[in-house]
Structure formats: structure tokens, C-alpha cells
Specification:
It is a single chain. The chain is mostly beta strands and 141 residues long. Helix content is 10%, strand content 27%. It contains 2 helices and 6 strands. The strands form 2 sheets. It has a 4-stranded mixed beta sheet. A two-stranded antiparallel sheet has the order 3-4.
Length: 141
Amino acid sequence: MASDAASTDTPSEDSSDPVRTPPREGQLPSLAPEIAARLKRNEDGLIAAIAQQYDTHEVLMLGWMDDEALRRTLTTGRCTYYSRSRQEYWVKGATSGHTQTVKSVALDCDGDTVLVRVDQTGGACHTGDRTCFDAGQLPLG
């Protein structure tokens, strides 16, 4: 897992800063309350996170984030997801080198999905494919 050193920086007073409350001793900062209040989490406390190539608009993958994964993504500029099967955080590309550099993050109208526009290096899919949607089209009709 990549270092979370950026999360210990002193947050600015800018209202767009995703981390505004300094952490207590031994505690990580939390997601800004005005962002957290907008999220509509599923029963596991997660929201869907769609990764999209920022310049081609290619849909790369779907992952899951909780408040902490979103905070890390917003503050480090690297996509951090929450693995439902392993029940742990993972930074895209930390072991494969297939990184996602965050260009922008947008919350959908319902507050249950984020669109993370990224610059993808290497394949986005765990299979090595460029996207998780390269497995083939489903027949229509």
C-alpha cells in the first residue's frame, strides 16, 4: 500500500479542501463534513466509484469507496479503493504499477456514486486489460 503521508499535512481553510479538521494525536483526518453529508452510502457504508480516462472519456473500471478511501483519493491524488473481499484499502497501481492519477472527482446527483477522472498508466483491470469492460459486448435483442 502506498504511503498516506499527504494526509498528515496541515489542512487549509479553503472550503473545497476535503480535510479541514486537524486530527487528534494518533488519528487520521476525516472527510470534510460538508462532503460526507452529501454521500448516500449502501448498507456496507460504501459508494460506487467509476474511474474514467480524463481525456478520452473511456470508462475504465468500477470500484468501491468509503469515506476514508474518498478522503485519501482527494488528498493524495491517487485512487484509493476499499476492497470488499479483503476488507482493506488499496491504492490502484501500488503493486502493479498501473496507476490512476486523479484529475477530478465529481459526485452524482443522488450522492451514491463518484466519477473519478484519471490518467491511467497501464491496464485498469486486474486482468491487465485496458478497461474492465474489454471482456466483450453482450448481445442485444
